[in-house]
Amino acid sequence: MFNVGYRTLKTAIGAGIAVGVAQLLGLNFYISAGIIAILCIKPTKKASLFSALQRFVACVLAMVFSVIFFHLLGYHPWTIMLVLLLFIPSIVKLRAQDAVGTSSVIILQLYSQGQTTWAIIWDQVGVIVIGIGVALLLNWYMPSLENQITRYRKKVEENFAIILKEFATYLRDGDSDWTGKEILETADILKEAKSLSLKDIENHPFQKKDSYHSYFIMRGEQFEILERLMPMIASLDRTYKQGRHISDFLDRLSQRVSPKNTADQFLEDLEAMRVEFRESPLPQDRQEFEIRSSLAHFVNEMEKYLELKSKF
Prior knowledge:
Number of domains: 2
CATH superfamily of the largest domain: Putative aromatic acid exporter, C-terminal domain
Strand content: under 5%
InterPro entries: ArAE_1, ArAE_1_C, ArAE_1_C_sf, UPF0421
Number of helices: 12
Radius of gyration: 31 Å
Structural class: mainly alpha
Keywords: Cell membrane, Membrane, Transmembrane, Transmembrane helix
GO cellular component, one term: plasma membrane
CATH architecture of the largest domain: Up-down Bundle
Membrane topology: Multi-pass membrane protein
Pfam families: ArAE_1, ArAE_1_C
C-alpha cells in the first residue's frame, strides 16, 4: 500500500480537469492546459499565485516574441534559436525563469502551426487561462495547520518548563538524573514549527497572520539563551546563598511558561536579585569571585530571556 498526498491528489485532479475543459472547448493544444495546471499547483497559496503570475506573463511574452519573429523571419529552425536566445534572458530579467519550460512549449507549438492567426493565438490563451485557473481554484483550499502548530507550541512550552525545572533542581540538590533529551527535542520541534508557521502565513497571503511564526522565532531566541545557560548552571555552587535564590527563581519561572506575557513580574524579581547581589559583601577569595561573576552573567542572560517574551 502507498499513501497519496494531498498535493498529489490535487495535481492529478487538476491535470484531468484542465485537459477535459480544454478538450470540451475544442482547443487544439489541450494537453498544455494539463501541464500548466500541474506546474501551478504548489505547497502554499502564495507560491501557487506567484507561479501562476510567472507563467501567465511568460506565456504571453512568448506569444508576442513568436508572432513578431515568425512573421518577420519565417518558420525556420534557426528562427526558434533566435527567439529563445532573446526570450529566455528577457524572462530571467523579469524573474520568471521558472516558467521558461512552459513558455518555450508555447513557442514550439506556434512554430508547429506554420502560421499565426487570431484563432491560434486565442487557442493558446485559452489553454493558459484554463491551466492556471484550474490550478488556482484547486489550490485555494488548504487544510488548516492550526492544530499541528498548537501542538508544537504546547510541546515547546512543556519542554521549556522541564528545562528550567531541571536547572533549578541541579542548583538546589547538586545532582540530577536528567538526560537532557528535551534540549535536542526542542531544537527539532522549533525548526519544524518555524517552517510550518511560515507555510501557514503563505496560505493566508491577504491576511496579516504571522503571530505563530513570530512566536516560534521568539522561543528560538530564548532557547539559544537556555543553551548558553547550561554550562553556567553547572559551574554554580549550590551552597552559595544567591545560588539558592536563583534556584527558587527558576522554579517559579518553570511554572509560568505560557503564551501569555508573564515576563514583567519576573523582570522585577530579577532586578531585585541584581540589587541584592550588588549589596552583598565583597568576595573573599578567587572561587567566590568567579561564582559572583557567573551569577551576574546569569542575571544578564535571564534578563535577555525575559525581555524577549516581554516584547512579544
